[in-house]
Amino acid sequence: MRKVFRFLSMLLAAIVLAAALGTLVPRPLWPAASAGEGTRHILVLKNPIHTDIAIPVNDTVRQRFHFLADAGLPADAPEVRYLVFGWGGRAFYLETPTWSQLKAVPVMKALTLDTSVMHVDVAGDIVEPHPDVAGFDIGEHRFAALLDFIAASFQQGPNGPVVIENAHYSSFDRFYEAKGHFNALVGCNTWTAAALRTAGLRTGWWNPLPVSLGLSMRLYN
C-alpha cells in the first residue's frame, strides 16, 4: 500500500509539474515579428473544460465554409457575426449536451482514446470584455492560415466534409467527422492552442485545460 501511495504521489507531482511547465514555457519560444498586429479580430470562448474559436464572418469566410449552409446551418443569415469551431472527442461531444447527461462511458473514452469530431455553431454579436471571452487581433496572412488549419481538421468524404446526421444540440449547430484522435493528453484545448499558434499567437507548450491556455495567452500575447 505504501508503494502504491508513493507511486500515486509521484504521478500527481509529475502531472502538476507538466501542467505548470506547459503553461509557463511559451510556444514558440520567441514571438513573431507581427504578433498582436492586424485587422482581423478572433475570439477564444471557454467554459470550465473546453475552448472554441470564433471566426468573424464575411462573404469570403462564408464561401470558404459553404458546406455549413448546405447542411442546414444558418451560416448565411445576416444576423450571424461569427462561426464558432471546436474539435473534441466524439463520445463526450455527442452524448453530453448538458452536464446533467454526463455518463461514465464518454468520460472513460475522453480519458483514454476516442475518435474526434468538429462542432460548428453560429453566433451573433459576442460581448467583450467577458470572463469567458478573449479577443486577439491578427493580420490577413495569419487569418488565412487559421482558416486553412480549421478547414484541414474536417475529415473529407467524396463530397467534402462529412456531416454527422441527426447530431446537433439545436438548429444552430452541426457536428462533422474530424481528423485525429482525442485523448487526455491531446484534447480540445491542445487543438485550440495549435490553431492559435497557426494564427501567429503564442500559447503554453502544453495546454490541456482552458485555465492553462488562458493564462499562457495572457502572459505571452
Explain the overall architecture.
Residues 1-18 form the signal peptide. This protein has helices spanning 2-24, 59-64, 66-70, 90-95, 104-111, 140-152, 188-198, 210-220; strands at residues 26-27, 40-46, 51-56, 82-89, 114-123, 133-138, 156-157, 160-161, 173-182, 203-204. It has 8 helices and 10 strands. The protein has one domain. The protein has a 6-stranded antiparallel sheet with strand order 6-2-3-4-5-9.
Estimated helix fraction: 25-40%
Please tell me what the overall shape is: globular
Uncertain segments = none
What number of structural domains do the residues give? 1
What profile does the largest beta sheet have? 6 strands, antiparallel
N-to-C CA distance: 46 Å
Instruction: Supply Rg.
Output: 18 Å
Order of strands in the sheet with the most strands? 6-2-3-4-5-9
Q: Strand-residue fraction?
A: 15-25%
The succession of helices and strands, N to C, reads: HEEEHHEHHEEHEEEHEH
The class by helix and strand makeup works out as alpha+beta
Residue-averaged pLDDT? 89
Number of H- or I-type helical stretches: 8
Number of strands: 10
Signal peptide: 1-18
Protein name: TIGR02117 family protein
Pfam family, one: DUF2459
InterPro entries: CHP02117
